[in-house]
Amino acid sequence: MKKIFMAALLLVTMIFAGCGGSDSAGGDKKLSVMLGSNVVSLDSAQATDVASFEVIADCIDGLMQLDADGKAIPALAESYDVSADGKTYTFHLREAKWANGDPVTAEDFVFAWRRHCKSSAEYSYIMGDTVACVKNADAVIKGGDPKTLGVSAPDPKTFVVELDAPVSFFPALMAFPTFYPINEKFYNSLAEGSYGTSPETFLSNGAFMLASYVPGAANIQLKKNDSYWDAAKVSINDWQYQVVTSSDNALTSFKNGTLNVVNIGGNQVAHVNQDAELAKNLKTFSSGLLNYLSFNQDPKNHHAGALANANLRLAISNAIDRESLVDNYVMNGAKATYTAVPIDFAPNAKTGKFFAEDQKQFSDVVSFNVSKAQEFLSKAKSELGKDSFELNLIFSNDGDANTKIVQAIKSQVEENLPGVMIKLQPMPKAEYLSNITSNSYDIALVDWVPDYNDPMTFLTLWTTTGSEIAEHWSNADYDKIISDCSTGHLAEDYDARWSALYDAEKILLDNAVIAPLFTSASAVLISPNVEGIEYHVAGISRVFKNVKLK
Fold this sequence. Notes:
2 domains; twelve-stranded mixed sheet; four-stranded antiparallel sheet; 18 helices; disordered N terminus
């Protein structure tokens, strides 16, 4: 799940650009989309980051797509049927072709899904019983026979999926790249390990094809796939991605006409709002990305013996002024968050109310309350027999946004909690990831982009075996609730499941396993000549299929 750590930086610095100079922003109709991070892999069984998933989704369709409102609509599956018990989906495929002329068949899905589970890669988990609940997926991931996976192809145009339990959001999951097909004949014709490493080793069935790509390159060229089943709706013939890490430079380029869409934050937003003409191009989109502090509770870690104390963790959480963070340091429309699930995310299918709509429900343990924070600290000092604590806070320094945020957190905690000192440890992304996965941190600034529009995409992170983030926290009651909501008796009762997820969240926050900070947003400058970019709070964050350049 390493994409968590790439996501925030990507969303903060992600920008779109127009190729070639022009006299005014948007004067050039050649679209260039700039990423804040390199693509890690175009193999859907290996990809873990936002950039990789986005490029894969540009080029390959799954069974379903998400429309502009984030609702699942047919893609390669022209229609589907669901059994009365909600445990069997039968997808009926439309007539569609791969870019080499081969028909897209149900066997392409069977091959890909079996391969993904067999690989036991980081994103294999999404097929298992904490998310998609595909029958026998967990057993295959652990080394079982891939042929026992609950997928079959009765005929070339019929793909059947058996589940261990009903999954209310299963159709929307089918828009996520891990569930995409792979042409088995094409894959088997390649040298081992070469799939997805060049245009020649990557086969599209979607709106676009790779025209130029080398792993790690700062430039990716795409072109329209004329054999795409929905090609009539695609108006961009060719475009490109470029990797850039300086959003300051991007804003300058937007102003001088080089770039036609730019994500901005911090002081840039204030600058834009002071310019009436520039402000006309500013739009804000909810991202669904939760930013939080992860507390490493492993007693064997450098300083984490102290962080195994719940009162110390509660003290730190309640000493942070989240409203000040978003107003004075993030400044892009982000919202202070006091829940483990982000704001404006995961609407209840029956009421339409967002899961985290009530931001005061856990205010007894998550708030900005200095006197309460100091009470928690006093208890911690008494329980630990210590009067001072020096804790390391690691963060990725691939952009300036994270630096400003952690500096503010350090200042607030040290001012409000006498005896607590925070040592900031900036590091490159690769080193940061290594420290996270090797248990070498006390506190980490983390962000998580939801894979699907359900609270479970967050709440499964903190089960005993939930993710690679080493909080080293385990709670049997919490694990049981998540299990019951996944494949147990609560899975088939929507209202009871929804209520139980709040119970799990309360256990998590009562124990201060994390300190929620804010829900990110994307403040985007879009030139008037660009329209039709779709932003989603879960899954693929941006879709370009329907983009038009005026």
